[in-house]
Amino acid sequence: MDTISPLEQALHAARALVLADLKAVDVADADVVSLVEESITSRRWWVEQWPQGVEFVTGLVAQDVQDGILERHGRWPVCPVCGPEAGTGGPHALDVEPELGADPHWVCSEAGVVVAAVGSLGTVTG
């Protein structure tokens, strides 16, 4: 029986977690899911070049997808913590922290709070 490599396990987990967050805020349409797949392909190559980076894959995929959505559709995920009157006056996106590290979380940098782990936005968005 073939075993799944740690790289493939990390990539599958990253895909599932980011897709869960996309679904939680109802933006998991075909072109957005394609962004996830593009990121997975890119990050597979990246980790093959730097195997120690395997624990960073989930956060990097989340950031890649966030950047792709920003270019095509606008901010994602929009902060559920701050109202429109907070901060600069408009909705803002959450950030992934750490930018390059294990155990990535969605964070509101304006309020300075951790909102949810990547993959768990559904627990705060309803």
Description:
With 126 residues, the chain is mainly α. Helix content is 47%, strand content 10%. Strands 1-2-3 form a 3-stranded antiparallel beta sheet, with helices on one face. A hairpin with a 4-residue loop joins strand 2 and strand 3. Helix 1 (6-24) packs antiparallel against helix 2 (30-49), helix 1 (6-24) crosses helix 3 (57-72) and helix 2 packs across helix 3. The protein is globular and about 50 Å long. The termini are far apart. The relative contact order is 0.17.
Strand adjacency order, main sheet: 1-2-3
User: How would you state the average pLDDT, rounded?
Assistant: 91
Biggest sheet, open or closed, and with what strands and sense? 3 strands, antiparallel
Estimate the helix proportion, in percent. 40-55%
Order of helices and strands: HHHEEEH
Using only C-alpha atoms, the radius of gyration works out to: 15 Å
Structural class: mainly alpha
Number of helices: 4
Strand content: 5-15%
Would you count the extended β strands for me? 3
> Gap between N and C termini, in Å?
40 Å
Parts with pLDDT < 50 across at least 5 consecutive residues: none
Q: What gross morphology would you assign? A: globular
